[in-house]
Amino acid sequence: MDPPVDISFYLGEQAKESLSNLDVPVSNGQIVSINLTDELPDDPNELISFLEGENCSKKYWISIATAYVQLNKLDEALTIINHALKLAQFSEDEKISFHSYLVWLYLKFISVGVDKENYLIKANMEISQLSQQEASNNTSNILSQAVLYLFKDRQDKALDIFDKLLRIDPNNCFALLGKAQIVLHKTKHYANALKLYQQVLVLNPMMKPDPRIGIGLCFYGLKDYTMALEAWNRALDINPDNLKVKILLNLAKFSRTFTNSLSDDEFIENYQSCISQMSTYYKESANDSVILLTLVSFYFSKQKYDVVQALVAKIVKNLTGYVGDSDPIKFNNFTKLTKFQSVILSQCAYWLGRIEFTNSNFTQSSKYFQESIKLNDTNLPSKLGLGLSQHNRGSLEESVMTYESILKSNGKCLEVNYSLGMLYAKQKSRRKQEQAIEILERYIKLSNNASTSTAPHEDLDDLSSKEPVALNAYLVLSKLYEGRDIGQSLTYLNKAIESRKKINQDVPLEVYNNIGVFQFMKQNYSEAAENFELALKKTDDKIEDADGDLNLDLPGDLKVTLTFNLARTKEISNQTEAIEIYETLLKECPHYFSAKLRILFLDCITTQKRTKKEIKEEIEALLALDSSDLEVRTFYGWFMKSFGKKLGLKPDADTNLQKDTLVDYDSHDCYALISLANIYCIMARDLKAEDAKTQDEKKRKYYIRAIELFAKVLSIDPKDVYAAQGLAIAYIENKESNKGLDILRKIRDSLNDISIYLNLGHVLVDLKQYGKAIENYELASSRFTDEKDSKIHSYLGKAWFLRANNEKNLNYYLKAIEYTEKALSYATGSHSSLKFNLAYVQFQLAEYLTKLPVGQRVLTDIEKGIQQLKQAIEILNELSSDSEVHPPYPKSELKARATLGSATLLSRLNAVFEETKEHNSQIAEKLEVAKKIREEETAAKLKIQEEQLQAQRLKEEELSKEREKLQEQAQQWAEEARMNVIVDENDDDDKFDDEPKEKEKKKRGKKAEKSETAAKGKGKKRGKRKAIIDDSEEEELSNNESEEESSTKRKVEENDEDEDDRPKKKKSLSKEFIEDSDDDLEDDLFNEENGEKNGDEEQNGEAKEEDS
């Protein structure tokens, strides 16, 4: 059996039942039981009479009043308490309790929104009176003061009181609940508030208000919706009649309905269930603001705006007491509102604003939204509504500012990213358009990452965790990228198709058309045709507009455009089929001049079905139908320029036509302006005058006029690339190359066309920036051709040749020859000019080699030069032969140059070869001689070094032998000296036998000390010590021997200063022999330096002894 989940879990069944019954003892000794939930009368006077008659104590009066409060019958409870206060049976202390209860009853009135201002005053007065009658530390009175501060929205003061109470009693549940509420709603520190609520739950699981409600709110704020629902469900188990918990659970269900419904049917079912439950709660509490606001949302979606306004007015009346007789409600007039009231009123203003927005009253809707934001500055829907209202009434800048301010505080809001991106996209500023791209791409990223799935749906497809992206976002991004990156523009159009397919919606035909156009621009003609054909198939389907109505005109209008685009694409692969499509289109739309002009154009250049005269007549017929059609006039101008001479037209016929177009029809016709500008450039190039100064002046005037015309076109259409290129070329030909170069570089950034790179290459060649010119030519070749274009290779050959002449580099000449040979191999038609170019470069290579200093020549390069020169001579002879029909120069000049090459230049080159060969052989001989001399010098140096090393080794051997001899001699002398010392010592003993023993002992003691001191001084240089002997002859003899030994030692040291074997010699003496000696002899022989120091100390010692 499962344990109970209601209040009986904590109190037990018996205690649970006792809470709903009140046993009142009566005067006859019996007990009357009153059911506090089901048997309370509507009129409390019956119970008042009973309690008064039985003279019941205070607790019964308060219990019955509390029962009425729990049934939301506050007036009845107030009647009971007021009557009790009038009775004389209660003492003053008991009446204080009633007054205290009265305070809480007033606060209850305030909490349910009944006459707030009045009851705030009454509660404040009661608290003031109680504070005078009771002790200042009365907990109930202090708590009531804190709660009153909460209702006055003075949360800081309330928090101070709660903290004060908690310092007195850390387990005060009321104070903990109050502090938790402030932390939750004011600071939004959900984790801290959660700890406080959980502390209350542990201390008192049956606490009212239920801390589980606050726990659920904290978990909801922490995004742990599962735990929040568990907390609220548990609170409902404890108290099934708790309306606040029911409302919270219903709102959570609303949220899940809006975010987790996977189908329309599921959404409808869940939504109806939520609304049904909320309607039930409305019957329980008709004045609850949250319930009313939920119903406002429902009736707004049903477009029952009158009901919405009535509900909003009811909410405003309940919160403020305001009864508006006239619309609109002025929310700015409401003051002294609590935070909760401000939030509710903000929502009311928001819904009124939406009603006005729906009615297209954007000025009034803006006012409501602004009032809503003032009441609650975190009301995001009101901010979005304000931005939309501003935009719809034409205040674009204000709308942008509103959305920008929203974006700063709500960077991940999908709606504001989308709206601001769209507004930026409408502006002409390049910076704004870049911002539009950035924001719209962020919107798409946020939509794809917007997880709306919950635990039960985690295993569903990716669609459940993504917010559908607005189709317009993809289309606008595609348009923004159109002039920057066609590839990226295509990508977004394909994503638009994918997004529509995911939600089972039709793809607009315009999307397929745009994809086809972009594919055509990228020269993907087959893909372009596929998209046009697919769109044409879909024109037969029914197309609905945004309101769901059938759009009958759209398929027909689009079909004409799609058919023309398909035919235009087919021109590349199948011109016959393209012409058939054009003709079919003309049958359906006879006055569709664009199709007719394409047919005439194809007749001009390829099909030749009509003669040029017939084409001219048809163009004139079109002009007769509509002489103001600029497209027809433009085509006629091109036709005159291309075929006017063949038809016998005047040379200036096309010029006159363009002038007439500008004067009579459209002074801003871009094609006419560009044509006139080009004519001025041609006139400047072809100008020939006898006076060079006059010629330059006229040229300059023509170019300036052309520049003005190109500039006018760009002022009309800043993206006209042909005008921009024409302007750049005009500047360059007018010797303003830097200006032209700047323009071409700007065009290169916006137009991906081969002509840009070729023109850049030409300009850079003129500016002698050959490296950059070569780079642009190579880009043009690799990007836009199959790298077999003869002209581009000819340009590369010229650039390398000019670079070789400028930098005098042999490899550059060879590169020029390589590219010129490639240009010749890829060329079609006449090759005479390319052959001459090749021969010319080969001649220049030969000239370069003959002028090189002999030290810089390489025989293999000269051999190549000879071969190239011979080939050049053959080419010139071929060009000067009778078989050549179109030689680039007079044949006589070509023949003379060939003769000059074979007779003079070739001979010089051969002479240079021989000279270089001889020079190289001489250099080789000199190098060989120098090498031999160097080897001999090296061998001589080695021999001398060997001799020096040998002599040094011999010398070292002799010195080593001499050192050995000296060491032996020194050892021999040392032995002899030791023997002499032994003999002298024995004689001294005989001579001094008569001296007092006491003095002898002292001397021997002194000698022993000296011997120890000498032993410590081993390892140092040798020194002298003098023994104290009274006999002068003995002393003299000893001194002589000592001097003799010292002189011998000095000789030994001079001959061998690096002697290291002395310590070993000392060790060879026997220990016994050293002890029998004079104790100082060893130090005299081997520690000369130490002996000198110790000798001085000994003399000082002797002096002290003699004094004694």
UniProtKB/TrEMBL annotation:
SMART domains: TPR. One of its GO terms (biological process) is regulation of DNA-templated transcription. InterPro entries: Ctr9, TPR-like_helical_dom_sf, TPR_rpt. PROSITE patterns: TPR (PS50005). Residues 962-1108 are annotated as: Disordered. GO terms for cellular component: Cdc73/Paf1 complex. One of its GO terms (molecular function) is RNA polymerase II complex binding. Keywords: Repeat, TPR repeat. This is TPR-like protein.
